[in-house]
Amino acid sequence: MEWQENKTLKIQNLRVDFLTKTGTIQAVKGVNLTVPKGKITALVGESGSGKSVTSLAVLGLLPRNGKIVEGEITAEGMEFGKLSKEQKKRWNGSTVGMIFQDPSASLNPLYTVGNQITEGIRQRQKMKKEEAEKLALSYLKAVKLPNPKQLMKKYPFELSGGMCQRVMIAIAMALKPKYLIADEPTTALDVTVQRQILSEIYRMSREQKMGILFITHDLGVVAEIADQVYIMQVGEIVEAAPVDEIFHRPTHPYTKKLLSAIL
Ligand SMILES: Nc1ncnc2c1ncn2[C@@H]1O[C@H](COP(=O)(O)OP(=O)(O)OP(=O)(O)O)[C@@H](O)[C@H]1O
Ligand code: NI
């Protein structure tokens, strides 16, 4: 798959090791991945294959014992490894945004929902508080959260998991990152909410030309929204192809196994 350089988030030969008491774990072993703008790229693989570690590495958010030992991550003409501390802060959020697997862990428990979205908006563009609040309200409406006005005054602990997840998506929309990594964003949500979130994510990719890396176990979801698919197994990408090819002409035995499990 060929994509224009300046319109992709590119991960090249990424290796991530974890140091543990019992030795070194090679969690990611030379991953190559290209996420083009305006499209949805799915990253699929069994539990423990290194999907979350790959995305945390892209954001510079690896746990303390994790280390990028090799590789390059580039977007918008910048190479992540060469950025200053300040630039890395900006990269995280405005170049690449993330919706985490566990939404309760990614919202700040000390601030109201309204505060968190409004601050996100004002970080990105200078505007009066009232204006930012209006905009925040419109993003909460866009993710179909009920009673958005009251919701603005609530703290994360007052919300369900599904609501937190939608708030995270609203924040991602407000920050308008060039790329968004969504790590299992709809696991543990009921089906109706799941559908709404998927269609919001799809809309962001098309309308805002956002490049989305969508991590999931669910091949049904992949078939529905992804443009291209990467299959990961024990720290490596074993197959990469446009979505139709993966479903109709899988080449790797592991991909075939995954597909046979859902058919
Ligand atoms: N802090 C850590 N210390 C040691 N090993 C870790 C650490 N974090 C992750 N790992 C290891 O890295 C590997 C990849 O984990 P990762 O969370 O990326 O898997 P995943 O593909 O996201 O799985 P899941 O689908 O369950 O979310 C696993 O073997 C895991 O044990
Ligand atoms: Ni994960």
TrEMBL record:
InterPro entries: AAA+_ATPase (IPR003593), ABC_Ni/Peptide_Import (IPR050388), ABC_transporter-like_ATP-bd (IPR003439), ABC_transporter-like_CS (IPR017871), Oligopep_ABC_C (IPR013563), P-loop_NTPase (IPR027417)
Entry-linked SMART domains: AAA
GO molecular function, one term: ATP binding
Record's GO cellular component terms: plasma membrane
UniProt cross-references to CDD domains, sorted A to Z: ABC_NikE_OppD_transporters (cd03257)
SUPFAM superfamilies: P-loop containing nucleoside triphosphate hydrolases
Known catalytic reactions: Ni(2+)(out) + ATP + H2O = Ni(2+)(in) + ADP + phosphate + H(+)
EC number, as in UniProt: 7.2.2.11
Compartments where found: Cell membrane
Topology versus the membrane: Peripheral membrane protein
GO terms of biological process kind: peptide transport
Domain spans labelled ABC transporter: 9-259
This protein's UniProt keywords: ATP-binding, Cell membrane, Ion transport, Membrane, Nickel, Nickel transport, Nucleotide-binding, Translocase, Transport
Family stated for the protein in its record: Belongs to the ABC transporter superfamily.
Subunit composition and interactions: The complex is composed of two ATP-binding proteins (NikD and NikE), two transmembrane proteins (NikB and NikC) and a solute-binding protein (NikA).
PANTHER family according to UniProt: NICKEL ABC TRANSPORTER, ATP-BINDING PROTEIN, OLIGOPEPTIDE TRANSPORT ATP-BINDING PROTEIN APPD
The protein's name: Nickel import system ATP-binding protein NikD
